[in-house]
Amino acid sequence: MTDHTQPQQPYYPPRPPYEPTRPITTEPGTTVWPSGSGGGGFTPPPAEPAYAAAGPVPAGPVSRRRAKRGVGLMAAVAIAAAAIGGGTATLVQQLTADSPAATTTASSAVSGTNVSASSTGTVAGVAAAVSPSIVEISASSASGGSTGSGVIITGDGEIVTNNHVISGASEITVRTSDGKTYRAEVVGKDPDKDLALIKLADASGLKAATLGDSSKVRVGDEVVAIGSPEGLTGTVTSGIVSALDRDVTVAKDDEGTGNDQGRQQWDPRQGWPFEFGGQQFNGDTGSSKTTYKALQTDASLNPGNSGGALINMNGEIIGINSAMYSPSSSSGSTAGSVGLGFAIPVNTLKADLDALRSGGRS
Q1: What is the pLDDT of residues 101-158, one digit of tens each?
Q2: pLDDT for res 18
Q3: How many CB atoms lie within 10 A of CB 119?
Q4: What band does 161 get if pLDDT is binned at 50, 70 and 90?
Q5: Contact status, residue 187 vs residue 264, Cβ threshold 8 Å
């Protein structure tokens, strides 16, 4: 019986050990390497000539070289995809940041000023920290009485104020922020600088203010003023430093010479008289006067703020409020602050403090 079975044809080339390294030959001179089971691929640089179908594909170094090249190309594809993906993510982030929704989210996350009674850098925080160190001063004499302010500088009751607040006074009463009342005596006066130091009787445990450095003050710095305008104890106002080194001239009461006359010249309803730029404000300064360099502020100052504190946003005293301009109304009383206030720089006070404690002028 004749066997008509056809002889089995050999399979060329032999099946490779794994599928990704199998070349697909479409036509002579063109070889496409598959990129995986997902379909698609890319054309590598000119491949080596395909082996003839008549013989097996050598399995030596050539196969390993082709395998390595395939892995390298696949790694390059992965790196390129990662780079494109990163660029896309960056672009999405930029587009998202430019969108209105993203703008709203960013704005709501911006940190603002935390208005807290215990925080620094806010008016509320400064007021809470320094108000216990500011007092109301009531001075009385045969010619009348007046109200001013003062700053506690020691826990046992040393208080700095303006000379014009206590000049000629026969009795001085001080009320602290907690409502306690003390009698006070004059320790030292310096009419040339319009400064005075008084001491409370039987006082202890008071909160002393921190004296800052007025040489570091800049125009535009935010400030807080605390005092007792018109007897309204603990009044807080705020503003900025408007100017530095203003030559302010005020009336001067010398010890033992014309104290009563000097006090008669000062009408508390009109504010303390002073001169600036050759002009007089809030009354006649008289023939006895002194001039000092002052900080100018637009923080509201009114009669009774004299001797109080001008404070920076760190809670440090940078000036002693001393003069203010207020236009007179037709009734003869003050029309209120117009943002022209002046303070003696705290460095002037610090330089004069030892002299004040010794009872004499510097």
Answers
A1: 444 333 333 333 333 445 668 999 999 999 999 999 999 888 778 889 999 999 999 9
A2: 57
A3: 14
A4: very high
A5: no
Active site residue 331: no
Selected catalytic residue, list 190, 194, 253, 352? 194
Place of tokens 């000379």: 163
Closest residue by Cα to residue 137 from 149, 145, 128: 149
- How distant is the alpha carbon of residue 288 from its chain centre? 43
- Catalytic residue chosen out of the listed positions 133, 167, 228, 306: 306
Distance CA 39, CA 36 (A): 6
Over residues 236-293, the pLDDT tens digits come to 999 999 999 999 888 776 554 444 444 443 444 445 667 766 666 666 666 778 889 9
Say if residues 303 and 359 touch (Cβ distance below 8 Å).
no
Q: Which of 164, 177, 253, 300 is catalytic?
A: 164
Q: Give the rounded distance of the alpha carbon of 90 from its chain centre.
A: 33
Does residue 177 carry a catalytic annotation? Answer: no
**pLDDT score of 100:** 43
Choice among 129-138, 169-178, 226-235, 325-334 with the minimum mean pLDDT:
325-334
* Structure tokens, 78: 């992965």
Nearest to 343 by CA among 309, 316, 313: 309
Respond yes or no: is residue 306 known to be catalytic: yes
CA distances from 11 to 15, 16, 98, 115, 251 (A): 8, 12, 62, 87, 121
Say which DSSP state 178 is in.
T
